[in-house]
Structure formats: structure tokens, C-alpha cells
Amino acid sequence: MDYYLKVFVTVSEHQNFSRAAEELHMTQPAVSQYIRTLEQTMGTRLLERTNKYVRLNQAGEIVYYHAQEILGLYTKMQNLVDDITGKAEGQLKIGASHTFGEYVLPWMIATMQERYPDIEPEIMIGNTTEVANLVTNHQLDAGLVEGKLLHHKLTMDNFAEDYMYVVASPNHDVFRHETSIPLKALENEVWIVREHGSGTREAMEEMFSDYQCKPKKLIHFGSNQPIKEAVQAGLGISLLSRWAIQRELENQDLRIIPVESLPFIRQFSIITNSAFKTKALDVFIDLLKNHEMLKRIHD
């Protein structure tokens, strides 16, 4: 049954029998037969077909959602069984929120590939909420996130601290001050912020609450890079991870505002959804917790 679900998921994602057949290395009639058999088993049609499109109907949406979770569990089960007598190898699906995924994870993966070339990493970058949902549905082996998660299915393990600073363009008027200033003094500034669901946005809101700062205007961006560009352009100020701004600080494109009681410190965490781990995941977690790069995170 797992292969019937795989064919169904592939057709659903491509919305096309021919493209699904090409990806699965099957003939189109064979793909059609798999779909018909699955629909007979389920007792209802799952796809609406016309000459122009193939779409999920309401029943198909339900099967598609659960098929992804079932296939994820099946793959994890097979990998765990293969691991009993094997070595660290095979597919490893890791999700990461933007800050860690864009500025730290590539270095971890490079080290892992050097030491364990038979591990096949597959990386997904999204905000904390997106990554957590994929781990919950067994579509990722693990997630690397910032911020707090409250989900009974997930195990969360902190592995490093992240230091966050308020930054501005070097030409900003705020640098006329010779001494540190309270965060509340920046209420009238334009704050460049991440979208809801991101760990960086959560940290910023927690910081505002802790120091009773109520910014008058927020401008939203969906990732760190456009936020940095906006701050450099003088559009506003922002709270960003030291990892995200290292290069800009070195090049003097950004400057840290001397705000009292900062940096703001949050946790990097790894989230998983199984008591069992493949050897590939064990290797990655051990690397994560002992990598020299993370030991220098506050330098």
C-alpha cells in the first residue's frame, strides 16, 4: 500500500499524470491504474480529472495529508531497521529556521560530509512554525529552530545560545549618543521585523514585552537578508542574530546600537518526533552539540 500512496502523492503534487509517471519511471497507464486501485480501496474518487487539470477533491485532501505522514513514518522505520547492522549513511532530512539554516547549518553540513560522505542530507529552510509542522508530520527527521514550541508530540533539546543585537545603518542619528540607551528610547523608530511564526519575530516581541517598548511602526519582511538590506538603506532598525550580521559588522555596513541590557539571548534547539534515531541523525546531533563554530557563538 505504501507505493500506492507514493504514486498518489506524486500525482497530487505534479497535478499531472505524465509528469508523475516520468518522476516515478513508470508508464502513464500504470500510474493511472495505481490511482484507480487506490480509489477503489478507499471507496471514493480522490482526484478530479479533466483535459486541463488534475486536482484533489475533499476526500483526496484528507488522503494526501495522511499519506505524507504515513510515507514519512515508513521511510523512518526502514532507515532504523537498516541501521541495526549498518553504518551512518543514507538520507537525512533536516529542517531549519532561517537564521540557523542560512548562516550556521551550511558549515555543519560541510563538516558532516567530510567525515561521513555516505550520509545524504536534504535541507529545508522555513520559519520555526513551518519546520515544527513538518517534523510533527514525519516529513523531516529533525528541525533546528529558535524560540519556544509547545507541542506534545515533539522533543525539544537546547544545544546553543544565540546572541541578538539591535542594529542600524552606521549613518543613523541614534549613534550621536555616546552612552548606551534604554530600548524604550527607540519606540519612535521604524522597526524592520520578521513575519509571525518566525523565531526572530518571537524573540523581538519578547524583548519588547520585557522592556515595555511599544514601537509605533513595524515593517514586515519574510527573511533576514531583505531585513539587513532595508536596515542598511536606512529604512529602520531591527533585532538580528549575531550570526546573521557578522559579515555586515566586519564590513561596517551595519552597526550595533548600544542598548542597555542587551544582547538578547535565546536558545537554538533541535526538535524530533521519535524515540528512535537513525545513525545518520545521531551523528548529526553529536556534531551539532560539539561543533567548534557553536562554541564561538558569543565571541
The first-to-last residue Cα distance is: 53 Å
Low-confidence stretches: none
The dominant shape is: elongated
Order of helices and strands: HHHEEHEHHEHEEEHEHEHEEHH
Question: Which secondary structure elements does this structure contain, and how are they paired or packed?
Answer:
Blueprint: H1 2-14, H2 17-24, H3 28-42, E1 47-49, E2 54-56, H4 58-83, E3 90-96, H5 98-103, H6 105-115, E4 119-125, H7 128-136, E5 142-146, E6 155-168, E7 190-194, H8 199-210, E8 217-221, H9 224-232, E9 238-241, H10 242-250, E10 255-256, E11 264-272, H11 279-290, H12 292-295
Parallel strand pairs: 3-4, 3-5, 7-8
Antiparallel strand pairs: 1-2, 5-11, 6-9, 6-10, 6-11
Helix pairs in contact: 1-2, 1-3, 1-4, 2-3, 6-11
Write structural notes for this entry.
By secondary structure, the protein is α/β, with parallel strands linked by helices. Helix 1 packs across helix 2 (17-24) and helix 2 crosses helix 3. It contains 12 helices and 11 strands. Strands 3, 4, 5, 6, 9, 10 and 11 form a 7-stranded mixed sheet that branches. Strands 1-2 form a two-stranded antiparallel sheet. Strands 7-8 form a two-stranded parallel sheet. The longest helix has 26 residues, at 58-83. Helix 8 (199-210) links the parallel strand 7 and strand 8.
